[in-house]
C-alpha cells in the first residue's frame, strides 16, 4: 500500500512500470496517451478541493483556450510517423484517413462500373465485369452480418451523448452469433471450393439483365457461383464464357474486396472463438476480469469484447478488431519491432493504418471533424468552433474500431448494388 | 482548476476507463488522491 500523492498519480500515468512496478493491481495503463503537462493539469480532478499554483513548466492551453489532443510521441509529423505511430490518436487519424480514402476508392469504382454499364457498346470486358459484380453481390449476406459504425457528424439530429454509441454500437449476442455464422460460411465456402446458391432467388436477380443474350444462351446463368474462393479466378460454369485473361488480376475492385474481407473473416473467426473460450473460462472461475499478471493485456480484453461492468462478455462482431489486436502480438513474437518510443506495451507496435483506430475510450467523441482539424492543425482550425470537441459524457462500449476494411467492403458492396 | 482538470479528464478519454461511469473496469481516479492504494501483488 502507498498513499496516492501527486507523484504516485503522475507515475501511475506516465511510468507505471518503472517506478512503482505496476502501481495498482489490474491497472489498465496506457502510459503516454497524454503528456506530462496534461497529466499535471488533470490532477485537480482527483482532488477537487486542492489548489495549485501554476508552475513554470506548465504549458498553457492552445490559443483558443482548448486543450489540444495528444500529439505524436516523437513530435514528428511526416508520413512515416503517421503510418507507424503506436499512439491511439495517431491511429485514429490514420484510420479516419484510410476510411475516407477507401470510400473514395469505392465510389470511384462504382462510378466506373456505372459508366461501363451506360456505354452502349462496352468494351470486351464489360460482360465479365458485370458478371463479376453481380456474382460478388452474393456476398452481401456476409457483409450484412457486420454492424457498421456511424459517425456522429453524419447522423442528423443525433444527440451528442449518443455519439459514442453511434460510433461504437454495442454489439449483441445476435450480432456476434451472426458474425460467427458468417465466418463459418466463408470457411465452408473456401473448403468446398466455392458457393453455389442455386435457387429461385438467384434466377430473379438482376445478374442476367445486363447481358440478356448471354443469359438466354447460358442456361446455367442462375447457377453461377459468386466467386470461386478456392481458385484465383472467377468461376464459370459455361466454358463458352471464358475469356483470355479472365482472372483475378482483371477482376473488379469489388471482387478484390470480397476476397480480402473473406480472408479477414476467416482469420478472425478462430481467433475470436479462442478468445470467447478464454472469456468463458475467465467468467467460469469468477476472476472478474482478465488481470494483467495473468494474460497480460486487459486492454486486449476490452478491445475484443467491449468490456463493460455489467456485460463483460458482450462481443464485438468486427473480426478486424481481432486481427488488429492479435497482429501486434504476432509481430512482437516474430521479433518485429516497429516504431515506438517505448511508452506502450511491446505488443502494441503496429502501424497506425493497420491498427484501425483507436483504443482511447473517448475516441468516438474525438473523431469529429473539429478534432481531426485540430490534431492535424489544418489552416482554419476548428470549423465548428470547438463544439464538436468537447462532448460531455463517459463513453464507450468498445475501443478499437477496425472498420476500415469493412467499410471498404461495404463501399464495394454499394458499388455492386449501384451497378445492378 | 478542478473544472479544468475535469475537462481534460474527459477530453483525453481518461473518464472512459477511470471515471465513475466508466464502462470498463479500471481504477477510478476520482477521490484517489491522498488515499492509500494497493500496489501489485498486495504490496
Explain what you see.
The complex is a heterodimer of chains A (420) and B (43). Chain A has 420 residues and is mainly α. Chain A contains 18 helices and one strand. Chain B has 43 residues and is mainly alpha-helical. Helix content of chain B is 35%, strand content 5%. Chain B has helices spanning 2-11, 14-18, and one strand at residues 36-37. The termini of chain B are far apart. Strand 1 (2-3) of chain A pairs antiparallel with strand 1 of chain B.
Topology:
The complex is a heterodimer of chains A (420) and B (43).
Chain A: E1 2-3, H1 6-14, H2 36-46, H3 79-83, H4 88-118, H5 126-136, H6 140-143, H7 163-167, H8 173-191, H9 200-203, H10 212-217, H11 253-284, H12 292-295, H13 298-305, H14 319-333, H15 352-355, H16 363-366, H17 369-376, H18 403-419
Chain B: H1 2-11, H2 14-18, E1 36-37
Distance between the termini of chain A: 66 Å
Oligomer: heterodimer
Radius of gyration of chain B in whole Å, from Cα? 12 Å
Q: What characteristic shape of chain B results from the CA principal axes?
A: flat
- Unreliable spans of chain B are none
Number of helices of chain B: 2
Question: What's the end-to-end separation of chain B, in Å?
Answer: 33 Å
Largest sheet of chain A: none
The greatest interface here is: A-B, 62 and 40 residues
The tally of helices of chain A reads 18
Mean pLDDT of chain B: 65
Amino acid at each position: 500500500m502507498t498513499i496516492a500523492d501527486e507523484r504516485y498519480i503522475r507515475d501511475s500515468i506516465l511510468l507505471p512500470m518503472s517506478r512503482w512496478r505496476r502501481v495498482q493491481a489490474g491497472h489498465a495503463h496506457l502510459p503516454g496517451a497524454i503528456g506530462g503537462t496534461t497529466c499535471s493539469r488533470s490532477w485537480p480532478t482527483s482532488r477537487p478541493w486542492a489548489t495549485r499554483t501554476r508552475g513554470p513548466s506548465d504549458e498553457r492551453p492552445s490559443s483558443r483556450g482548448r486543450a489540444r489532443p495528444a500529439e505524436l510521441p516523437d513530435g514528428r509529423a511526416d508520413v512515416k510517423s503517421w503510418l507507424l505511430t503506436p499512439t491511439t490518436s495517431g491511429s485514429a487519424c490514420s484510420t479516419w484517413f484510410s476510411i475516407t480514402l477507401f470510400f473514395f476508392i469505392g465510389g470511384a469504382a462504382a462510378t466506373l462500373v456505372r459508366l461501363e454499364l451506360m456505354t452502349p457498346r462496352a468494351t470486351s470486358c464489360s460482360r465479365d465485369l458485370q458478371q463479376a459484380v453481380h456474382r460478388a453481390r452474393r456476398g452481401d449476406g456476409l457483409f450484412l452480418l457486420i454492424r457498421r459504425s456511424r459517425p456522429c457528424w453524419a447522423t442528423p439530429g443525433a444527440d451528442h451523448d449518443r455519439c459514442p454509441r453511434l460510433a461504437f454500437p454495442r454489439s449483441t449476442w445476435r450480432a456476434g452469433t451472426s458474425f460467427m455464422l458468417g465466418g463459418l460460411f466463408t470457411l465452408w465456402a473456401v473448403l468446398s471450393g466455392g458457393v453455389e446458391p442455386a435457387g429461385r432467388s438467384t434466377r430473379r436477380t438482376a445478374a442476367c439483365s445486363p447481358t440478356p443474350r448471354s443469359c438466354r444462351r447460358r442456361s446455367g446463368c442462375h447457377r453461377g457461383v459468386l466467386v470461386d474462393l478456392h481458385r484465383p479466378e472467377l468461376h464459370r460454369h459455361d466454358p463458352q464464357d471464358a475469356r483470355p485473361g479472365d482472372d483475378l488480376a482483371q477482376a473488379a475492385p469489388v471482387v478484390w474486396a470480397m476476397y480480402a474481407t473473406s480472408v479477414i473473416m476467416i482469420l478472425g473467426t478462430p481467433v475470436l472463438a479462442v478468445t470467447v473460450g478464454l472469456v468463458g473460462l475467465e467468467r467460469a472461475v469468477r476472476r472478474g476480469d482478465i488481470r494483467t499478471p495473468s494474460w497480460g493485456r486487459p486492454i486486449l480484453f476490452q478491445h475484443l469484447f467491449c468490456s463493460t461492468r455489467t456485460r463483460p462478455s458482450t462481443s464485438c462482431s468486427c473480426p478486424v478488431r481481432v486481427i488488429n489486436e492479435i497482429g501486434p502480438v504476432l509481430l512482437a513474437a516474430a521479433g518485429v519491432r516497429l516504431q515506438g518510443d517505448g511508452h506502450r506495451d511491446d505488443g502494441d507496435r503496429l502501424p497506425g493504418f493497420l491498427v484501425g483506430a483507436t483504443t482511447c475510450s473517448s475516441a468516438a467523441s474525438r473523431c469529429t471533424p473539429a478534432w481531426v482539424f485540430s490534431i492535424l492543425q489544418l489552416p482554419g482550425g476548428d470549423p465548428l468552433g470547438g463544439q464538436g470537441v468537447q462532448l460531455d459524457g463517459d463513453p464507450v462500449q468498445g475501443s478499437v474500431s477496425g472498420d476500415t476494411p469493412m467499410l471498404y467492403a461495404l463501399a464495394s458492396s454499394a458499388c455492386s448494388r449501384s451497378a445492378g | 482548476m478542478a473544472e479544468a482538470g475535469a475537462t481534460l479528464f474527459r477530453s483525453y478519454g481518461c473518464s472512459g476507463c477511470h471515471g465513475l461511469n466508466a464502462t470498463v473496469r479500471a481504477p477510478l481516479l476520482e477521490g484517489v488522491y491522498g488515499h492509500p492504494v494497493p500496489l501489485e501483488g498486495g504490496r
